[in-house]
Design goal:
The protein has 233 residues and is an alpha/beta fold. The protein has a single domain, classed as Spore Coat Polysaccharide Biosynthesis Protein SpsA, Chain A, CATH 3.90.550.10. It contains 6 helices and 13 strands.
Length: 233
């Protein structure tokens, strides 16, 4: 499975540090956040990685290179301007395999990714994508997804009414999901891709009780650092 990591955002909530450091390169436990994500992929047997980069991307490329130091293969897709989560994926279309995993570059979800891939293989015949959902039994924020059995029935980040789960920042897609969209156009996974798949009942759910760690604010970054202290002892 190929991992495609969204790593091109501006990190506005972490300014002023993100004026000079790209958001995924902010340190957590003495190493960049993205370093931890790449090691998580490698440790789950996922070694083909594309980084979707933009803001200050040169720092990311200089640090990781082609990935040899980390026993992975890293390629890059560069956004000249922000294209949204879906637009960034489409911008990398020529580098994408027929099926691939997409991960938010500011979210760390320590699950067994081999199990997720096996589940995808079970549902792929009647699905075009699968989204990992946190069951929110220890609330991390307002829920934004509704699901019934293994199918996602609604997705709304602005209204939590009727929602049960939180998007955990990991999905697997078939590449042809993006075929009808133009390159260099601003497109959102959340607002344009997911609703269309839900309407056709082609969006599967993978529900986990494992909490994810979001480094989007200084407070959340500290929570992730405390998690690292527990697993690295």
């Amino acid at each position: 499975m190929q991992a495609v990591i969204l790593a091109g955002g501006l990190g506005t909530r972490l300014r002023p540090i993100t004026h000079t450091i790209p958001k995924p390169m902010i340190e957590a436990g003495s190493r960049p956040f993205l370093h931890h994500m790449i090691e998580l992929m490698r440790d789950n047997g996922i070694i083909d990685i594309i980084l979707l980069v933009g803001h200050l991307y040169e720092q990311i490329e200089k640090y990781f290179g082609q990935g040899q130091r980390y026993s992975v293969n890293i390629d890059y897709s560069i956004e000249e301007k922000l294209l949204g989560t879906g637009g960034a994926v489409i911008n990398a279309r020529e580098k994408l395999q027929s099926e691939f995993m997409v991960l938010n570059g500011d979210t760390y979800l320590p699950i067994d990714y081999r199990r997720l891939i096996r589940r995808w293989q079970e549902v792929r015949d009647n699905s075009d994508a699968i989204v990992v959902l946190y069951d929110n039994h220890h609330p991390l924020g307002p829920p934004n997804v509704a699901a019934r059995k293994d199918r996602i029935t609604a997705y709304n980040k602005t209204d939590s009414a009727g929602m049960q789960y939180i998007d955990a920042g990991v999905q697997i897609f078939k590449r042809n999901v993006f075929d009808r969209f133009s390159v260099k156009k601003v497109i959102s996974l959340e607002n344009e891709i997911f609703p269309e798949l839900i309407d056709r009942d082609r969006l599967a759910a993978y529900i986990t009780e494992t909490p994810f760690y979001d480094m989007g604010t200084p407070e959340k970054l500290k929570i992730f650092e405390r998690y690292l202290e527990t697993v690295e002892k």
